[in-house]
């Protein structure tokens, strides 16, 4: 069965600094997608970034980028120039194979200090 | 374009009662997935509906049931409520079933069972 593990329950970063959130996953599938979602206190799950497993190039969205290591089954999120609005729960998620559902990690709570 | 909406926002029920949660999918989307997010956890997949048919189910008992209507809106029904059913219930819609289609989340319904 596929699993997603986030080993950092909480992280903290100074405003304008860079922080990296870790995620590892386990799958025997060759075709899959990985995501980072942000969930602020408003509860709305917002897609931050998406990575297709067949693409070697790491995805980037403005201040957000990933380090996708397929062989190591690692998928970390780097947030550059952190802003107060980045404070939220961040979830790593996987979808792949014949399954149409997302599998989520337990999340990392990110705090941003002014 | 209207996003995914859910109703009600909050709900308090007593153990043993039944509850119905509602989700309106984003315009043009024919697939709805439901997730349960317990406090401090990542969302867990309940089931998915594609064109009014159940298209996959997670590890939830039969007292969790659902429907999808011709306009692709959906209901989640939970019978014989238990205290552990207290959670945030999220629905997500997508253009179609399958791993390549991004899931767009609604704001969730917070269910409290006393």
Task: Please supply descriptive tags for the structure shown above.
heterodimer; A: 114 residues; mainly beta; four-stranded antiparallel β-sheet; globular; B: 114 residues; seven-stranded mixed β-sheet
Walk me through the structure.
The complex is a heterodimer of chains A (114) and B (114). In chain A, 0% of the residues lie in helices and 53% in strands. Chain A has no helices and twelve strands. Chain B is mainly beta and 114 residues long. Chain B has no helices and eleven strands. The N and C termini of chain B lie far apart (37 Å). Classes of the chains: A mainly beta (114), B mainly beta (114).
Reconstruct the topology from this structure.
The complex is a heterodimer of chains A (114) and B (114).
Chain A: E1 3-5, E2 10-14, E3 19-21, E4 24-26, E5 32-39, E6 46-52, E7 60-61, E8 64-69, E9 74-79, E10 88-96, E11 103-104, E12 108-113
Chain B: E1 5-7, E2 10-13, E3 19-24, E4 31-37, E5 44-50, E6 53-57, E7 64-68, E8 74-78, E9 87-94, E10 104-105, E11 109-113
Parallel strand pairs in B: 2-11
Antiparallel strand pairs in B: 1-3, 3-8, 4-5, 4-9, 5-6, 7-8, 9-10, 9-11
Looking at the structure, what is the overall shape of chain A?
A: globular
Greatest interface:
A-B, 26 and 29 residues
> How many β strands of chain A by DSSP?
12
The SSE string of chain B, one letter per element, is EEEEEEEEEEE
C-alpha-based Rg of chain B, rounded: 13 Å
């Amino acid at each position: 069965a596929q699993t997603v593990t986030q080993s950092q329950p909480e992280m903290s970063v100074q405003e304008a600094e860079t922080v990296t959130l870790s995620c590892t996953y386990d799958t025997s599938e060759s075709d899959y997608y990985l995501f980072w979602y942000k969930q602020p206190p408003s509860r709305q799950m917002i897609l931050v970034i998406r990575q297709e497993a067949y693409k070697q190039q790491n995805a980037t969205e403005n201040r957000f980028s990933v380090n996708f290591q397929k062989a190591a089954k690692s998928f970390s999120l780097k947030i550059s120039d952190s802003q107060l609005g980045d404070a939220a729960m961040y979830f790593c998620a996987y979808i792949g194979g014949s399954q149409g559902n997302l599998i989520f990690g337990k999340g990392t709570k990110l705090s941003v200090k002014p | 374009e209207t996003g995914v909406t859910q109703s009600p926002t909050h709900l308090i029920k007593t153990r043993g009662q039944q509850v119905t949660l509602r989700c309106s999918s984003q315009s043009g989307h024919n697939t709805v997935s439901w997730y349960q997010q317990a406090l401090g956890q990542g969302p867990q997949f309940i089931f998915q509906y594609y064109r009014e048919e159940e298209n996959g189910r997670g590890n939830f008992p039969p007292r969790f049931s659902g429907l999808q209507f011709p306009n692709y809106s959906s209901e989640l029904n939970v019978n014989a409520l238990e205290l552990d059913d207290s959670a945030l219930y999220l629905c997500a819609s997508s253009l179609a079933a399958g791993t390549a289609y991004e899931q767009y989340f609604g704001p969730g319904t917070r269910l409290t069972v006393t």
